[in-house]
Amino acid sequence: MVLLALFDGLKQSLGLYPIYIPAATGPKITGALMCEGSLEGVLSVSAKSLLQISTYKPFKTVSSFSCPLLLVALEDDILYLLKGREFVAAAIPTSKCELHTISQSEHFDVYPPNKDYERSVDVQIRFL
Predict the structure, then answer these.
(1) Domain limits of the chain?
(2) Which of 16, 28, 56, 115 has its CA 20 to 30 A from that of 124?
């Protein structure tokens, strides 16, 4: 999988089309997400994205943000836990950060055409 990710990164650096891999899979099948609820979402990603997932630590940079920031947390998200969003929000001065939690919502529920897409859009519009 790492070799595929590196090859995809090389292709994209040359301006070529990405190699897409399953974003979510069932048991014993290689993919980016292999957990409950994954198969209901977006089902392909660029292989190169796997190189960034392990080093992605948003809480290391958010304290330096100078613009207002909206964090939308989903109460029942098993991929990005609510506690993690609360941890990130706590690292930002409250005058710059709004943490909004959508109750009874899972990770992919806020993507179109799923049940909480409109709720998520409404939160974003009110923030703007």
Answers:
(1) 2-53, 58-127
(2) 56
